[in-house]
Amino acid sequence: MEPFTTFTSRVVLLPMDNVDTDQIIPARFLKATDKLGLGANLFCDWRYDADGAPRSDFVLNRTEVQGAQVLLAGDNFGCGSSREHAPWALVGWGLRAVISTSFADIFRNNALKNGLLPIAVDAETHRRLLAQIEDNPAAEVTVNLEQQTLRLPDGSTATFPVDSFSKHCLLEGVDELGYMLQHSRQIAAYEARHGDMVRTK
Amino acid sequence: MNERPRVLFEKIWDAHIVSHDRGSPAVLYIDLHLVHEVTSPQAFSGLRDRGLKVRRPDKTIATVDHSIPTYDRSLPIMDAQAARQIVQLEENCAEFGIPLFTGSDDRQGIVHVIGPELGLTQPGMTIVCGDSHTATHGALGALAFGIGTSELEMVLATQCLLQNRPKTAEVRIDGRLGPGVAPKDIILALIAQIGVGGGTGHVLEYTGSAIRSLSMEGRMTVCNMSIEGGARAGMVAPDETTFEYLSRRPFAPKGAAWDAALARWRALPSDEGAEYDMQVTLDAAALEPMITYGTNPGMGMPVTGRVPEPAQLADPVQRRSLEKALAYMGLNPGEALIGRPVDVVFIGSCTNGRISDLRSAAGVLKGRKVAEGVRVMVVPGSHQVKAQAEAERLHEVFREAGAEWREPGCSMCIAMNGDQLAPGQYAVSTSNRNFEGRQGPGGRTFLASPLTAAAAAVTGVVTDVRTLG
Q1: CATH topology of domain B8-165+239-265
Q2: What is the pLDDT of residues B7-22, one digit of tens each?
Q3: B317 and A15: CB-CB below 8 Å?
Q4: Which chain B positions have a beta carbon within 8 Å of A30's beta carbon?
Q5: What is the ipTM of this complex?
Q6: What is the structure's pLDDT at B2?
Q7: Which of A104, B108, B119, B199 could make an S-S bridge to B231, C-beta 3.0–4.6 Å?
Q8: Domain B338-459 homologous superfamily, CATH
């Protein structure tokens, strides 16, 4: 994973509550056995009509958001299915952060493991940012993970929470499995102490 | 020892902490890992890339459910991508030594149906699966939750997960369910009350007299949809119903091991005076059969109700979300759903694909005919459910009524296997999600209980099962 660095970007607006992972990447694309290539089908059924033509009224098809790295969505983003294909698709399209007032638990975990930063802000900050981008779709925000700050187009700054462990992993570009593998002695000791609840073979 | 009183969740959590470094999440030991074909391929590739083995294949079990067709298993799989995914699971399991129930194995079925029915799921265990409906297993007093593919790889490699401790919530449900009201209606009513994000960050423990009087299968239906309220896990403290259900199951402990397990399990229920971070109550006696009208499981109401009006919502984002949902569903604000024609009825899934669900549906369909122009699919949750239903001749009831009796799998709940709605079609479905396109692009889903679904099957319209007579 690439280390997560500070960046400035335009914002894709999707101000709807409860955007579920079935919308982010519909189940029919889950037959893929690879992580790559899902960005092409991000928000597929909102983005393309039944014949596969781009819908001009859907935000991802607008010229001004091409190359944007931040998505602003409504509350409880990423609810529903546990599919990690959702962050794979978001990252595949080019996104590095999603801003909302809250995130579904599994989505948040999956996002953090793929270099996609879930930024939870209060409702007032969310409302102000939405208004500023609606006023000027070319306006930019700056995401600084080190400082845990989000700078809005009007120059004001909001802070956001992130647990210190995930922050460390993102900033260093390391994944959690490496950390876990260092615990094999403790895991073996636990297994010796507790025995097995059930054996499948 | 005079210990601080703890709730069920805390007892299981505490017993599974391998280590906990300051500033890091806890290392949580996992007793059982359930694997299926859809969310696992990338995890096995990851292991291979790193040269890792599966640490405990003997605590892992795999089956095919999501993309397997529900037609005759002796026929080839027509969808080349689905076929490849299934073959890949077979190869991965063979390479890493993981037991696998293939499509023709008599233990195959939806992963959340077979865990409990085989006795793999037991009280006090930690259970994970790359599927958000893993909460189902919490019905037996286990801590069970869905994980993503990176976490899946971690569990394969280390039998552990890094987890921040969730908060706890008690969902207390007292009272007796009225006639025509099913366990599904309890959970749909709860989600309508707390919303699809209401349980975020929490593990729900369902308590109260209504939960105590439910069968194990009814409890599974309730726990199954905890995720639709935003909670990663739902649990019910084990009791005599649990122990009776588990005794004689193939993987349940036997003899002296059973007695020892029973003693452990009896110590699991929450202690007197233990506290939860949040409390919610629901009156079971006041519940009516429920149905959803919108595009998330929180958009539910009594079947006799009327679709809400976006104009009455003050918040613009909420208003837009409801308007969008109603436009997708082709419904008008303020309209009643009763009497609205349906095209398809789907009875099955990890929510309502067990024998008790099929019995309730058959009870309504017996001696009646499926309404003209309605397609009714009955998909048992597992081979064992199918065999039991056939032993009780329920399949004959379904077939005589004009319903399809199919092979086990997730089927039209996730519509990955060819079982799906056509654009614009309406379905009454016993599954768990009514998201846009969930049952096929452009398809429209009304979630309901097996009773309400069966009632729609015979009338051809959304129906209050209590009026069928």
Answers
A1: Aconitase; domain 3 (3.30.499)
A2: 999 999 999 999 999 9
A3: yes
A4: 38-39, 66-67, 416
A5: 0.96
A6: 57
A7: B199
A8: Aconitase, domain 3 (3.30.499.10)
